[in-house]
């Protein structure tokens, strides 16, 4: 990692200029999935803050025992207050919960993957979304689908993930693999997990503790170590920080690389080179 303002500028430009290799798609759609309180909504707010140039709080976030996000949300990120949207949409949904029948439902997740769920659809924990329910998009194309799935896990809770949550992750991984969507992990709150990183964020790749947590997470979720990205979200800060931005932008850059893998795996007739 190059911890420089030039590297930050390069990453921002690269992300803003990204173009999917599919004619019908202008923005990559990335879905954030994770336990309640892992930092999915905070991740969007943090990324949005970088491109806006100031702190923002568009997605609802906080601490609660159950998911604060009860709707499916698609968030567009603008470059500057009145700028153009960047070619990436972050999608947020209900958190994973331990209790069976609580939190994100597998059938709803598959509907999201396939593009059937409209923005602001209110999830019903009793019944999954079906064709006859308002909020169901019947006619979908490649641009409506999810192109990359990102699991969000709190670095402080890696060792505390319950068997039920790990089981839910495994079921989601299996279904996501069947559908053929690339998957990444972002490990949040690395500064809270390790005093060395809290002291200096640049120590994140030198911390043995963080490396152990990445390996532990890899074993639990079945995601390669190379697909687990450490980040720090903005939580209490009033000003942007270059090192925080670089970790977040590097994660976004990798998400777009993985979305490219999704597009490359599409049938030739879907692709039509630009």
UniProtKB/TrEMBL annotation:
This is Interferon-induced protein 44 isoform X1. InterPro entries: GTP-bd, P-loop_NTPase. SUPFAM superfamilies: P-loop containing nucleoside triphosphate hydrolases. It comes from the Eukaryota. Pfam families: MMR_HSR1. The gene is ifi44. Gene3D superfamilies: P-loop containing nucleotide triphosphate hydrolases (3.40.50.300). Residues 29-158 form the G domain. PANTHER family: INTERFERON-INDUCED PROTEIN 44 (PTHR14241), INTERFERON-INDUCED PROTEIN 44-LIKE ISOFORM X1-RELATED (PTHR14241:SF19).
